[in-house]
Design goal:
It is a single chain. By secondary structure, this protein is mainly β. The protein contains six helices and 31 strands. It is globular.
């Protein structure tokens, strides 16, 4: 039995060994599973501070943002017509995404910026942003015109081998309110427009840029003596209407007193016919920067408004009473070289800017000097930046006693031709660090806008047909603000405390003074007349604004 047991045990051991050998052979034929390596986020120091590699790619990404609170106060004397809102508030968020990849052609970059805000108060709830579609208003009885929200693609562009394409800051701009909280001085500042540009580096520190830019963000409207819009109910704002035409009259005939007895209307809503072309020559060095910019843009109007004189006359807003035959109207207009009614003129602007770094005063100190001149290019010169843009006339501030004429152009009622306005601005801004934690800015600007001599007088001839949209005839003509040349003075200062990096707590005060260039204008806040003349007139309007800010960048 011992021998049998021993034999059985030996046989079992051999069988197990053979089976294990077979299993090992089979296992050698199967794929071996390895542990997946952990992809750690790596710092991308080549692209700068804060960049990291997107796992699994050679693209570096930096994520940053901003949180801001603002509160402001601006005195308002006139509380009629829903005015009387001295206080204002805003909460804002910003998110930035900066992606960069190194290629054989240089850096390939994509930059995205999203901004959203809730803002209240008449001055903070910007009519400019609402008119251009960057914000939407509340519609409640107490909130309309006072509460506004926006979420906007502030930046979305690609840069590659000198090319910039997408939504970016205009290459015309230079200072662009770099040192200011309120951004109130006159000067071009279009931080978001659609463009396609090429920049070529010329030697050390020099660059030249040619940019094709979206014209819709640089068109300030024609002055139109009548506005065709859907009807509004009492108390309903015109912002609720849809503008379909902006009629401006061309005189066909006058009566014995010389005023217009019949007119035809042309549509002054500007079409998007060609891009704006911008060129900039820039130099950057240790001492600072300098830039010379130029721009050309089209200023255009549509044709004659249907049934307003070129066919059997059907009344339109402000149309003359009494028919004017189509043949007679066409002959009168053809004698002035007007056939289709559609016209195009070309506006232009030039700007020079200089930035000086002043480390010999204190680290971080700097001085900007900038000046601009233009024809038919008000947004390029930036005359209306504080008052507001995308409107042909506005009050300089809420409750002001008169309006500013801000049109890029007018159609002369006598000639029927486009006449461009002229404007210029000059700006200076100084930043000084009292200590590494405390700094102040001191800034100011001066600007003027003017219209061709005789244009106001020509518009007064249609007052009997379009009413207060045109200056009155007679002695009251001298006091009308319509199409008056005017000026604007802005000055301000700030104090900002930065107790830790990327945290600003500051306050800024601004003064604005405006008025006509010569003479006086009717005080619209006190509409009292004596023998047809205004009892109260003004030659300037002065006001101030204070705003504080708490802002954290990361």
């Amino acid at each position: 039995m011992g021998r049998v047991a021993t034999s059985l045990l030996a046989g079992a051991t051999a069988a197990v060994s053979a089976a294990m050998a077979v299993d090992a052979a089979r296992a050698a034929d199967l794929p071996v599973k390895k542990a997946v390596p952990v992809e750690y986020v790596r710092v991308c120091s080549a692209s700068g501070a804060g960049f990291f590699y997107i796992p699994g790619t050679d693209t570096c990404l930096r994520v940053s943002g901003r949180a801001r609170f603002e509160a402001g106060y601006i005195p308002v004397q006139n509380r009629a017509n829903s005015s009387g809102d001295p206080s204002q508030y805003r909460g804002l968020m910003r998110m930035n995404f900066d992606a960069r990849t190194q290629t054989g052609y240089g850096t390939l970059r994509a930059f995205l910026r999203l901004e959203a805000a809730s803002r209240t108060g008449v001055f903070m709830a910007s009519g400019t942003q609402q008119r251009v579609g960057n914000a939407f208003p509340a519609l409640g009885q107490d909130a309309f015109g006072r509460v506004q929200n926006f979420i906007v693609t502030e930046k979305a562009f690609v840069q590659f081998a000198g090319l910039t394409a997408g939504r970016a800051s205009s290459f015309f701009d230079f200072y662009a309110h770099d040192y200011e909280l309120i951004s109130s001085t006159a000067g071009s500042d279009v931080p978001s427009t659609n463009l396609l540009a090429y920049t070529h580096k010329i030697g050390e520190g020099w660059s030249a840029t040619l940019s094709m830019e979206d014209p819709n963000f640089r068109k300030n409207p024609f002055y139109a003596a009548a506005v065709g819009a859907t009807g509004t109910l009492p108390g309903q704002s015109g912002l609720n209407t849809v503008l379909v035409t902006a009629p401006s009259p061309v005189i066909l005939g006058t009566n014995a007193s010389g005023t217009a007895s019949s007119v035809v209307f042309v549509d002054t809503v500007q079409r998007s016919r060609m891009p704006d072309f911008v060129g900039a020559l820039r130099h950057d060095a240790a001492w600072g920067s300098a830039q010379l910019s130029a721009a050309v843009k089209d200023v255009n109007l549509g044709g004659f408004i249907a049934n307003s004189g070129l066919s059997a006359l059907t009344p339109v807003p402000g149309s003359a009473s009494g028919p004017v035959g189509a043949g007679t109207a066409a002959a009168l207009l053809a004698a002035r070289g007007l056939t289709s009614g559609s016209q195009t003129a070309y506006g232009w602007a030039v700007q020079g800017g200089l930035k000086l770094n002043l480390p010999w005063i204190a680290a971080g100190d700097g001085l900007y000097l900038q000046g601009a001149y233009g024809e038919g290019a008000l947004i390029y010169t930036g005359f209306s930046y504080f008052t507001g843009t995308y409107a042909s006339q506005l009050n300089p501030v809420q409750g002001a006693p008169f309006v500013h004429a801000l049109a890029d152009a007018v159609v002369n009622p006598l000639s029927g031709r486009i006449e461009l306005s002229t404007s210029f601005t000059a700006t200076a801004s100084l930043l000084h660090y009292w200590t590494p934690e405390w700094r102040s800015a001191f800034f100011g600007s001066y600007g003027e806008i003017g219209f061709r001599r005789g244009t106001r007088a020509a518009f007064s001839l249609v007052n009997g047909l379009v009413g207060a949209a045109a200056p009155p005839t007679g002695a009251a003509f001298a006091f009308s603000p319509i199409l008056r040349d005017n000026y604007q003075i802005i000055a301000g200062t700030s104090l900002i405390w930065s107790p830790v990096k990327d945290l600003d707590i500051g306050i800024e005060g601004t003064y604005i003074g405006t008025g006509p260039l010569g003479g006086r204008v009717t005080d619209a806040s006190r509409p009292v007349t004596v023998n047809g003349l205004p009892a109260y007139t003004e030659k300037r309007y002065d006001t101030t604004q204070i705003r504080m800010r708490v802002q954290r960048d990361f």
